[in-house]
């Protein structure tokens, strides 16, 4: 590839030299005409003074000689000397010159070396100097544009995208219980739904973040949000568990690019004194997304009557309505983004000066009109653009087929994203990347691990309390009786039921053990967590029930008849209020971060990012020790609210620091990598902390405290970015 590049460069130089030779010949012709006219004038002057000078013949002969020379050679003595200088200065075409000869010649003559003769290190050095100059100039331009209507409009548009990310995180937890029941998901497969979404978000964060540094923030955000909205909407209609996992995987893949792209986008239209505060206010939309998801789940999912079916093959229950409603913030952000321009800082970074200037002028004029100063003129005429380093891409456009060209293009883009990612580990950002990696991992591991552990502990306490209230019935003998009421949380052992009718009943958490059912009728039965263990059924009829074979454990059925058995898992309990309690707990936990959001936004530019990051993580680690006293549901909910309120300041300050520590050409890529690491740590935390529920409190508390305190101490070692311009 390198030899091909050199050959092409040499051919291009040769073509340029040919063009110069043609131009020089044209100049010679012009000089020839000028010389003829000048020599004719000289000859007439010599003839006028021919009688007065004794040596006129000498000059006339010289004049005739000059004319003849012009006719034959096409130049005068003066122009011949000039041509020779041209040959030395311009380099007359004498074959394809080598790159080293051209560069040495330019250096010898004191000329500036053209870009094609410079190596990559020299070009990168010049580009770095240009970027430093652009950073200072861009800060002054943004200050001249002011902070006003444009930034607030973009604030709400990007806030909707960030809200969609918050919704996506909560949707899985809210939908999982209902989806498990509706799709008959076994316990061994239920954990995949939560993990598959985080896996998609992890890959998506890295990919879309890298793409945002290649094609632009707005375009990358538009594509990733469109992918999320499409697959989220599609997942509400699919029936199979495998296809549902596939849709949620790509939905997570799409939304994974929201956080790194949104923060990179918004930070590039904010002045230094506004950046920390307004990025913190933007973080509130993630909290709003969690509140929105909790409220919608609370209002929609328990209403099982909000469903319809098309035969026995297609069931559309209330949780599917909830999934559609949760896709609305994503759709809104996609529509609004179509009216927003690209980040002008990104356009300057890739050398698109005119487009960036027009957008900056639009920002200035929009804000000035909103202030009532439409006459104020945008005074910037020229903006520094960094030197562009071209990459040679070999695509077989002549001989290759279209799909081969697509494969090459995709491979090239992915390789470009990988190269940009590797530059995040080059000087001077290498140390910052390593420290940020440690902080992101520890904060994510502790936060998401305990966030899963809290609800599981609450549910474990609820299960223990529910199990303690179970009613036992032994040695019952019931005959010729009609059961038409609900049975819940009961265990019936060694009973005999003769000629009984069970009609329009609901069984919830009911177990029959070692019992006999003879000449009985079960009609219009709906059951949940109901089993018949080691029971005997004789001459019994089952009509329109959901009592499938797996609910008869080690039971014997003699001469029994089944009519219209409802297969699949049924969601049918209108009085199931336990769901309300779960959604309410999540609602309170999300709402508890509101004070932390407000405090972090107001103090971000006053006390500094590092103080807030380190202090918040250390305080969060200390607060974990209060979990020792969480012996009831109400106390655990209080601890959950306290923990969430303390950690949100750390998240906000970490987002701001990450944006400010990376230069523009690596900002979204670096942020995407760290956000992907965050999702990996979340999955690891879920697995570790989830396995300890009901076993011990000591390990989760000590583990979370240790990682949070250590991460906070590492965060204090990061450079302070409060007073520096955006690199």
Which key terms come to mind for this protein?
5-stranded parallel beta sheet; transmembrane transporter activity; transmembrane helix; 16 strands; alpha/beta; single chain; Pectate Lyase C-like; elongated; Growth Hormone, Chain: A; 727 residues; 9-stranded parallel beta sheet
Structure explained in plain terms:
The protein is of the alpha/beta class and 727 residues long. Among the domains are: 120-385, Growth Hormone, Chain: A (Up-down Bundle); 471-563, 3 Solenoid (Pectate Lyase C-like), CATH 2.160.20. Helices cover 65% and strands 9% of the residues. It is built from 23 helices and 16 strands. The chain has helices spanning 2-48, 56-73, 77-91, 99-108, 120-145, 149-182, 187-215, 217-235, 241-255, 258-267, 272-300, 318-326, 328-337, 344-349, 353-370, 402-423, 430-468, 578-591, 593-607, 609-623, 633-661, 667-690, 698-715; strands at 308-310, 314-316, 471-474, 477-479, 482-483, 487-493, 496-498, 501-513, 516-518, 521-528, 531-533, 536-538, 541-545, 552-553, 556-558, 561-563. Strands 3, 5, 6, 8, 10, 11, 13, 14 and 16 form a nine-stranded parallel beta sheet that branches. The chain has a five-stranded parallel beta sheet with strand order 4-7-9-12-15, with no helix packed on it. A two-stranded antiparallel ribbon has the order 1-2. A hairpin with a 3-residue loop joins strand 1 and strand 2.
């Amino acid at each position: 590839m390198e030899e091909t590049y050199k050959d092409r460069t040499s051919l291009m130089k040769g073509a340029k030299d040919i063009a110069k030779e043609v131009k020089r010949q044209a100049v010679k012709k012009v000089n020839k005409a000028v010389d003829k006219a000048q020599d004719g004038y000289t000859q007439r002057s010599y003839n006028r003074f021919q009688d007065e000078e004794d040596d006129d013949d000498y000059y006339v002969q010289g004049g005739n000689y000059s004319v003849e020379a012009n006719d034959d050679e096409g130049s005068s003595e003066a122009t011949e000397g000039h041509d020779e200088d041209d040959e030395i200065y311009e380099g007359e075409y004498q074959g394809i010159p080598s790159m080293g000869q051209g560069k040495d010649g330019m250096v010898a003559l004191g000329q500036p070396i053209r870009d094609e003769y410079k190596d990559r290190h020299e070009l990168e050095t010049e580009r770095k100097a240009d970027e430093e100059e652009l950073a200072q100039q861009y800060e002054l331009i943004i200050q001249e544009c002011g902070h006003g209507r444009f930034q607030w409009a973009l604030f709400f548009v990007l806030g909707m995208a960030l809200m969609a990310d918050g919704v996506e995180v909560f949707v899985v937890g809210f939908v999982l219980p209902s989806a498990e029941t509706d799709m008959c998901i076994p316990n061994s497969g239920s954990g995949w739904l939560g993990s598959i979404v985080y896996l998609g978000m992890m890959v998506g964060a890295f990919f879309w973040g890298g793409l945002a540094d290649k094609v632009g923030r707005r375009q990358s955000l538009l594509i990733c949000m469109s992918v999320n909205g499409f697959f989220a909407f599609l997942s509400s209609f699919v029936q199979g568990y495998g296809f549902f996992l596939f849709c949620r995987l790509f939905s997570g893949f799409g939304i994974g690019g929201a956080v790194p792209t949104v923060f990179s986008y918004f930070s590039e239209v904010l002045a230094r004194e506004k950046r920390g505060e307004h990025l913190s206010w933007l973080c509130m939309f993630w909290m709003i997304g969690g509140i929105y998801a909790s409220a919608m789940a609370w209002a929609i999912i328990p209403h099982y009557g909000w469903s319809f079916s098309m035969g026995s093959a297609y069931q559309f229950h209330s949780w599917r309505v909830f999934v559609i409603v949760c896709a609305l913030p994503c759709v809104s952000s996609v529509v609004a983004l179509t009216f927003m321009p690209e980040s002008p800082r990104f356009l300057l970074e890739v050398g698109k000066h005119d487009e960036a200037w027009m957008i900056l002028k639009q920002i200035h004029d929009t804000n000035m009109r909103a202030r009532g100063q439409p006459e104020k003129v945008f005074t910037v005429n020229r903006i520094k653009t960094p030197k562009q380093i071209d990459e040679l891409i070999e695509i077989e456009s002549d001989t290759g087929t279209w799909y081969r060209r697509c494969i090459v293009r995709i491979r090239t883009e992915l390789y470009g994203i990988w190269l940009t990612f590797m530059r995040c580990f080059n000087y001077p950002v290498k140390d910052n990347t390593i420290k940020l990696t440690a902080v992101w991992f520890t904060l994510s591991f502790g936060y998401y691990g305990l966030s899963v552990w809290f609800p599981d502990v609450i549910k474990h306490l609820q299960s223990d309390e529910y199990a303690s209230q179970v009613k036992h019935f032994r040695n019952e003998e019931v005959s010729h009786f009609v059961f038409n009421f609900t049975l819940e949380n009961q265990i019936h052992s060694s009973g005999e039921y003769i000629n009984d009718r069970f009609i329009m009943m609901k069984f919830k958490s009911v177990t029959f053990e070692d019992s006999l059912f003879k000449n009985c009728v079960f009609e219009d039965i709906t059951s949940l967590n109901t089993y018949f263990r080691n029971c005997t059924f004789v001459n019994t009829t089952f009509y329109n029930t959901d009592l499938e074979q797996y609910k008869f454990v080690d039971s014997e059925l003699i001469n029994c008849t089944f009519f219209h058995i409802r297969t699949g898992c049924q969601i049918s309990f209108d009085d199931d209020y336990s769901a309300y309690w779960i959604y309410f707990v999540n609602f309170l936990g999300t709402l508890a971060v509101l004070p932390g959001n407000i405090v972090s936004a107001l103090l971000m530019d006053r006390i500094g990012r590092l103080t807030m990051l380190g202090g918040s993580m250390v305080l969060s680690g200390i607060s974990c020790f209060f979990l020792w006293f969480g012996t009831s549901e109400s106390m655990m909910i209080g601890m959950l609210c306290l923990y969430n309120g303390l950690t949100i300041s750390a998240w906000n300050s970490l987002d701001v620091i990450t944006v400010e520590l990376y230069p523009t050409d690596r900002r979204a890529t670096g942020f995407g990598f760290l956000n992907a690491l965050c999702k990996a740590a979340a999955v690891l935390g879920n697995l570790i902390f989830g396995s300890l529920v009901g076993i011990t409190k000591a390990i989760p508390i000590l583990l979370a405290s240790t990682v949070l305190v250590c991460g906070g101490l590492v965060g204090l070692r990061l450079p302070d970015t409060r007073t520096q311009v955006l690199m």
